[in-house]
Amino acid sequence: MALQLLHPITADLRLARQLADIADEVSMRYFNSRDLGVYLKEDRTHVTDGDRAVEQAIRERLAEARPSDAIFGEEYGVQGSGSRQWVIDPIDGTANFMRGVPIWATLIALVVDGRPEVGVVSAPALNRRWWGATGHGAYMDDDLSDSDTATDRRIQVSGVETLADAQISYGSMKYWMDEGRLDPIIELNARAFRSRTIGDFWPYMLVAEGAFDVSCEVGLAAYDMAALVPIIEEAGGTFTSIDGEPGCWGGSAVATNGVLHDEVLGVLKAASGTD
Questions:
Q1: In degrees rounded to 5, what are phi and psi of residue 137?
Q2: How many CA atoms lie within 13 A of 85 on its CB side?
Q3: pLDDT tens digit string along 11-67?
Q4: Residue 271 has pLDDT above 90, yes or no
Q5: What torsion, rounded to 10 degrees, do the Cα atoms 56, 107, 116, 235 define?
Q6: What is the pTM of this model?
Q7: Domains within the chain, CATH numbers bracketed
């Protein structure tokens, strides 16, 4: 029997999930630790021993498995160059992580020629993991103790058609104020059926699952978003910046079920005077 070659994205997705396994093991050793080291970075955001240890562990595995690929991580920057780059946020939700709040995750993405092609979001304290790869769908596992992929289920966005019926999340109000975009987010809230400010990765995964219809934030870096993009898109949704730029490089995020995307962008642009 001839050897069947794996699709390269399938192999990369398998590796990304292995990286998430490594990250989960490391991060859970630090979560709720009484002697967790917490430090203030130059940009006045926090970093913990857990953030650094997770990213180091992922980099070590990538050095073995994909030595020619580049890496861009939140804590240790860019290593290497080329068309393939792994983008890592070792602990998305560090403020939660260091306070014992279980809403945090490791974000792992493979970006090819600037486009996020593989994304894994692993939240071990919530016992959940999501992943997606271009052309392979989006999935969620809510039992990380069982490695049997039969527990995985495919996810898709909602079919909600108007903002008046939509449930949205918009991150921290302070960031919208700091960006001079307070009026747009107030207007979006006024038009939506219901809003929540969960923040970080989770509302985007809820959009992918169809539980939320819109999630948006400002003041983001590529490592905050790269892993989210393939999951949202493969679940049938749309992911852009507020300015409508696809992908993870626009500094802001608007993720929707697709049906609502133009309406949401229209509200945010019109209220900010950029329409």
A1: 85, 180
A2: 20
A3: 999 999 999 999 999 999 989 877 776 766 666 677 788 889 999 999 999 999 999
A4: no
A5: 160
A6: 0.92
A7: 8-154 (3.30.540.10), 163-272 (3.40.190.80)
